[in-house]
């Protein structure tokens, strides 16, 4: 059978060895006699799988001990609401760099929830053919965080180095380049990603 490769925006291609391991362990994960599709999410077996996944991410990304690794439902877009609801509790104000479709969606969701969203820079006028950047002299102390979409799949642009605000937290949507580039996690207050797009499968 001819091998077919998917070059769409997602989901990402899996290595053959990963697919082979899934095939081998699907009937009996870790020799348990049960499929991964059947085990309880409260079982010790599942807790061990979850702990292994968290530790693997820590090692792959160099995540410091004072950061938590959390897995949620809702994908990356779910964090458009969760981030402001959990982090914008002081000023209820969010700064945004408008780099394209997903940055706009994040700002719109926060606005619907009653938060004030200020677009500090945008490249909408040139149809997002370039990236907006922070003004080095801009005071962001009145904002709870700066929202940054690290990779804009639709527009074909990416921040290979994050825009670093000196006086507020940086929240980054890495749904389109999660684990594809190396960043210093300590530069960010929060990193989130819809993992199925580039790194793993749901379920």
> Which structural class do you get from the secondary structure elements?
alpha/beta
Uncertain ranges: none
For the largest sheet, list the strands in their spatial order. Answer: 2-1-3-6-7
Strand/helix succession: HHHEHEEEEEE
Q: How many strand elements?
A: 7
Mean pLDDT: 91
CATH topology heading of the largest domain: Aspartate Aminotransferase, domain 2
Short description:
The chain is an alpha/beta fold and 203 residues long. It has helices at 16-25, 44-61, 75-87, 101-112; strands at residues 93-98, 116-122, 145-149, 151-152, 157-158, 169-173, 190-192.
3D structure, described in words:
By secondary structure, the chain is of the alpha/beta class. It folds into 2 domains: 17-61, no CATH class; 75-197, Type I PLP-dependent aspartate aminotransferase-like (Major domain) (Aspartate Aminotransferase, domain 2, 3-Layer(aba) Sandwich). It has 4 helices and 7 strands; from the N terminus they run αααβαββββββ. The chain has helices at residues 16-25, 44-61, 75-87, 101-112, and strands at 93-98, 116-122, 145-149, 151-152, 157-158, 169-173, 190-192. A 5-stranded parallel beta sheet has the order 2-1-3-6-7, covered by helices on one side. Helix 3 packs across helix 4 (101-112). The mean pLDDT is 91.
Chart the SSEs and their pairings.
Elements: H1 16-25, H2 44-61, H3 75-87, E1 93-98, H4 101-112, E2 116-122, E3 145-149, E4 151-152, E5 157-158, E6 169-173, E7 190-192
Parallel strand pairs: 1-2, 1-3, 3-6, 6-7
Antiparallel strand pairs: 4-5
